[in-house]
Amino acid sequence: MNDRQDRYFDLPDQAGFLESTGGWALLGADALSVREDVFVNEQNVPPEIEQDDFDVTCMHIVIYSRGAGHYPKAIATGRVVVQPFGEALTGPVARIGRLAVRKAFRGIGLGTHLLTTLIEQAESQGLNQFELHSRVDAMPLYQRFGFLPSGPAFDEAGTPHILMVRSARSTD
Ligand SMILES: CC(C)(COP(=O)(O)OP(=O)(O)OC[C@H]1O[C@@H](n2cnc3c(N)ncnc32)[C@H](O)[C@@H]1OP(=O)(O)O)[C@@H](O)C(=O)NCCC(=O)NCCS
């Protein structure tokens, strides 16, 4: 995936964001800068498991803050990996992951924007089944998009997580 799509957008309380979607070659460095800040520095996830083989083949999103006359800064990111079958769902699934917003920019709707775009991108490729590992405390965010918990909570990188699924049926 070597192309990149850019789109400007505003949020109700703050204007001037740029959303880029595309592959690792073009967005990897910026995605990694956000992920290192959030997962490695803030949440103490070991750097060696933060990046994986899916990164080079999957679709990424990076959101930039345009600021006032400054070089755009990468402030949020996420990815979607297409897999032939899911952990709980049968058939192809879009696995959303590495959703991260720099601390100073949380709570204004960027996480919601990331999720909306990732779901739209996957649906435009004909995918209608989604899975993700949610931090237990972040479940309400995904429930708003029709994700349902599946199975018991488990430890992932030292934090309780739960598998959440969204199929055509769960959004009826
Ligand atoms: C999860 C995350 C991406 C959400 O980004 P965000 O920009 O703050 O999301 P939004 O502003 O769209 O808010 C979405 C809602 O989810 C809630 N939410 C998100 N993460 C939450 C958490 N960890 N605990 C409690 N509520 C959370 C917000 O409070 C908000 O609800 P509200 O509108 O009723 O206040 C961000 O909190 C983050 O980067 N967290 C650290 C990285 C992380 O743990 N990522 C994996 C999550 S599974």
TrEMBL record:
Residues 25-169 form the N-acetyltransferase domain. It holds the Pfam family Acetyltransf_10. One of its GO terms (molecular function) is glucosamine 6-phosphate N-acetyltransferase activity. The keyword Transferase applies. Keywords: Transferase. This is GNAT family N-acetyltransferase. It comes from Orrella marina.
